[in-house]
Task: inverse folding
C-alpha cells in the first residue's frame, strides 16, 4: 500500500521495482481515491509512483467546486510542485534512470505536457484527455515522446482539439502518438465514475500505457 507524504502527495512503491519512476497527475477533483488507485496500479507494474497533491489537501465531488479550483490553479506554482515531485522520485533508491514518465488525466494531462517542457527529467508523457485553458506548454522545449488518449465524444477535448494538439507538437519537432476511442467521452478511464467509465477503452488505453512507458524510458 502507498502512503500520503506530507505536503507532497501520495507515494506508491512496487514490490518488485523495474527501476523506473512515474508521476501521476490528478483530475480537477483533486488527489482523490481514484488517482491513488491509479498510482497503486503503476506500482504493481513495477514503477516507483508519486501522485503530487496539486490542490494541497483539497478535494471535491462537486463539479462547480472542481471548476472553481481548476480555474484558480496557480500554474507557475503547480509547475514548481511537479518539479519537486519529479526530484523526489528520482532520489528514491529503487529508481535507476534519470528520466521519469509523467501521466496526467484531464487537467493533469495538460500539466503533464507542461512538465515535459519545463523539466529535463521527463522521458515520456501520457496525456489522458488533457485540458486547461491557462496551461500553454512551449512545445519547442518538448523532447519526450507523447502518448495521447482521447474519447471521440469528449465535449471538453473534441476531435478538432486533438488534431490541433498533434499539429502543434509535430510542427515544433516533437513526437506524439494518439488514439481516440469511439463512443468514449471525457474521463473514460475513471472507473469511480460509472457515467463516464468505458471499460473497453480504459482497458486498451492501460495496455498502451504499459507498452509505451518502458519503451520510451529505456530509449
Result:
Amino acid at each position: 500500500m502507498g502512503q500520503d507524504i506530507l505536503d507532497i502527495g501520495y507515494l506508491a512503491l512496487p514490490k518488485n521495482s523495474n527501476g523506473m519512476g512515474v508521476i501521476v497527475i490528478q483530475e480537477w477533483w483533486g488527489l482523490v481515491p481514484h488517482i491513488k488507485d491509479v498510482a497503486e496500479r503503476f506500482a504493481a507494474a513495477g514503477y516507483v509512483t508519486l501522485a503530487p497533491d496539486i490542490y494541497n489537501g483539497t478535494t471535491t465531488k462537486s463539479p462547480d467546486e472542481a471548476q472553481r479550483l481548476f480555474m484558480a490553479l496557480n500554474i507557475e506554482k503547480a509547475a514548481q510542485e511537479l518539479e519537486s515531485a519529479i526530484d523526489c522520485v528520482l532520489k528514491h533508491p529503487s529508481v535507476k534512470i534519470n528520466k521519469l514518465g509523467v501521466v496526467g488525466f484531464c487537467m493533469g494531462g495538460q500539466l503533464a505536457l507542461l512538465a515535459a517542457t519545463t523539466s529535463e527529467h521527463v522521458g515520456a508523457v501520457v496525456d489522458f484527455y488533457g485540458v486547461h485553458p491557462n496551461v500553454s506548454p512551449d512545445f519547442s522545449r518538448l523532447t519526450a515522446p507523447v502518448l495521447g488518449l482521447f474519447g471521440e465524444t469528449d465535449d471538453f477535448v473534441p476531435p478538432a482539439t486533438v488534431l490541433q494538439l498533434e499539429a502543434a507538437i509535430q510542427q515544433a519537432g516533437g513526437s506524439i502518438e494518439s488514439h481516440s476511442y469511439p463512443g468514449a467521452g471525457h474521463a473514460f478511464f475513471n472507473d469511480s465514475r460509472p457515467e463516464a467509465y468505458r471499460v473497453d477503452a480504459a482497458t486498451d488505453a492501460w495496455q498502451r500505457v504499459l507498452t509505451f512507458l518502458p519503451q520510451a524510458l529505456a530509449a
